[in-house]
Amino acid sequence: MAFQRSSGQRLSRQITVYSVLCIVVTFLTVMLTAVWLSRSHDRQAAAVSRSSAEGILRTAADRLAEAAGNVANRREIDEAYRTEDRETLAEQFGAGLYGRPVDASALVTPTGRVVLSWREQERQAPLGDAVTTALNLLASEHETGRGRTGFARSGDRVMLVAAARIIGGANAPFSLDRPFLMAVQDLGDEISSLGRSFSMPSLKLADTSTPGKENLPVRDPSGQVLGFLSWEAPQPGMAILMEGYQFLLFALAAFCVTMFGISYRTRMLGVALAESEQGAQKAARTDGLTGLLNRRGFLEFITSEEAEKAARSGNLAVIFLDINGFKRVNDAVGHSGGDDMIRLISSRFAAAQPAGATLARLGSDEFAMVVNQSVASRVSEAALRLTSSLSDPLTVGGLEFQVSCAVGFALASAETNEPQTLVRQADTAMFQAKRIARQEPLQFRPSMDTGTQDKKNLEGRLRQALRNGELEVYYQPIARASDGAVAGLEALIRWPGGMGSSSPIKMISVAEESGLIREIGDFVLERVCEDLVRWPDLRVSVNVSPVQLRDPSFISNFRAVLARHRVPPSRLEVELTEGILISDPAMASKKLAQLRRLGVTIALDDFGTGYSSIGYLRSYSFDRLKIDRSLTNELLRDPQGENLVLSVLAVAAAMNLPVVAEGVENAQQFERLAGAGCEFVQGYFIQRPGSAAAIEAFLQSQAVAVAPVSTDGKVVRLGRTRAVSRRLVGE
């Protein structure tokens, strides 16, 4: 309980911390976002105001340039200058500039000598640096008719200077030797006037940059700063923020209060959830019947840091136990009695386990124990105490039962210091002990792994063979017993040169365990659909593994392959063993119904092995029954074997179910089966399995009659083919 409380407290603290962090982060995010948005809005407004200030400065310059240009372009000004008519020049200057936004004007020679000058109040006033500025403005002039502007300082004032060369009319030739008209204006007064007109009342001309305000430098033609336009930058974003901050703070306060309430409630729920989860986790790791660790709890324990540390130090052993005869108890007293038996066994194991050991129930009748021990003899003694605890009979339901157990164990060593490896080794040793019916505990030896390693090697080579295209599809004919006509073929997977001493059955077993059977099945189906073009009158049987049938995409893939190769479904027959019917009857029934709707016929393969239940024949409505070769081999050996085959044939005949006898290897078997009414035979006596080319050659060279496939999927009966029959029976 202490662990549970501390876990719940940690979870509660974490929830509280995360909630507070969420509130703080949300508050800061909202506030910073609001400030950032207001600042961004203010920056945009400042940029707009700066553009306006630049526009005002350009407007002032353009207005003065226009005034100077209008006067300089008059023909009267040019004639008065050439005739040195000062009176006319004075009148024209006054007519042209007085009344315009100009403080002063002057007529200047190309060398910079002021011929005449006027001011608004007094004429012939000195103009200071304005003349120099005007000369600089006109020094790079390439065309006439337009005024040029610049800025110059005159005492403590910044002046706007405009210069326009007198050209004497629009068609007069351009020459740098002609005089020019210069106009001067106080920039400060003009800027203030334009600022009011452009809704910038704070715009002023200052000698220096004003802190806290927006500033735009005013430069003379040489680039020297003469002064600054200064104005108050608008701050609409901050104004909006200040107007709405009260509402924003109220909303954030409401959010914080709500979050605090939610966090408190969540914390309380977290405490309850943590306590409930602790109970659920314990229940998930505990076997409900015995109170021991279950498989999940055992695996978590064996992979814990403590167990791994013990394994690395060589101080760990794993013991596996499997109860012998438990099924007999279940059959005698039922599952409830079996549960009582498991409780009794677990209590005896618990009483016999060494101090510090951990006991677990892994399955219905499988147990495991982890011991902190590195000496084989002591581990064997501990395991022997467990087996000895079952020496006395167990009483269940008023009946006494004597049970025993197969025990295997594995020790950690320098070579084997991983707990998961010890688990696998102990399991291997236990199964070995069970296989040889050993009563004493059996220690794992590396030689026990040989079979497992062989499977791994075979799996690797098989995977490589699939990638390299080393697998082939062989075919074995299925002949009609009445006349020897070939009625179909069975597709068989083969690995030429790759199997070695391994049988095809072992290859299929490894493929099923590794999942490669799906790829193999797809390969076989594709190849069969390609080869069916060779035999337009034959049906081909394809074996389907339970692993393939369990695949959710099996039916859709099957249908897609048939459609891609344009193969009618009636030309294929699917062969299944009864294993899938036993392990998952609901799934098998569903998949068989889907195959049947697709138009594929279905055969029950290897009948005579396993349960061979007639109930399966009635429940699943197979199209054909295949007798296993083991029954065919017993046909001529003893009367009991023959009677068994005859019984199967009789049952099939009663159900109107065609039968194929597999493993027919001689004429005697063939004749006996044909005489007993078996419709089809298959085996070496007919033809060994071969490649598609070999089977095609067999069909052609031996003059074999072929029984075509009818439209309803049934084999059409033909008359006896004497040549084939003679070859089959040895006449």
Automatic annotation (TrEMBL):
<dbReference type="Pfam" id="PF00563">
    <property type="entry name" value="EAL"/>
</dbReference>
<keyword id="KW-1133">Transmembrane helix</keyword>
<dbReference type="InterPro" id="IPR052155">
    <property type="entry name" value="Biofilm_reg_signaling"/>
</dbReference>
<feature type="domain" description="GGDEF">
    <location>
        <begin position="314"/>
        <end position="446"/>
    </location>
</feature>
<dbReference type="InterPro" id="IPR035919">
    <property type="entry name" value="EAL_sf"/>
</dbReference>
<keyword id="KW-0472">Membrane</keyword>
<dbReference type="InterPro" id="IPR001633">
    <property type="entry name" value="EAL_dom"/>
</dbReference>
<keyword id="KW-0812">Transmembrane</keyword>
<feature type="transmembrane region" description="Helical">
    <location>
        <begin position="15"/>
        <end position="37"/>
    </location>
</feature>
<feature type="transmembrane region" description="Helical">
    <location>
        <begin position="247"/>
        <end position="264"/>
    </location>
</feature>
<dbReference type="InterPro" id="IPR000160">
    <property type="entry name" value="GGDEF_dom"/>
</dbReference>
<dbReference type="InterPro" id="IPR029787">
    <property type="entry name" value="Nucleotide_cyclase"/>
</dbReference>
<dbReference type="InterPro" id="IPR043128">
    <property type="entry name" value="Rev_trsase/Diguanyl_cyclase"/>
</dbReference>
<protein>
    <submittedName>
        <fullName>EAL domain-containing protein</fullName>
    </submittedName>
</protein>
<feature type="domain" description="EAL">
    <location>
        <begin position="455"/>
        <end position="703"/>
    </location>
</feature>
<dbReference type="Pfam" id="PF00990">
    <property type="entry name" value="GGDEF"/>
</dbReference>
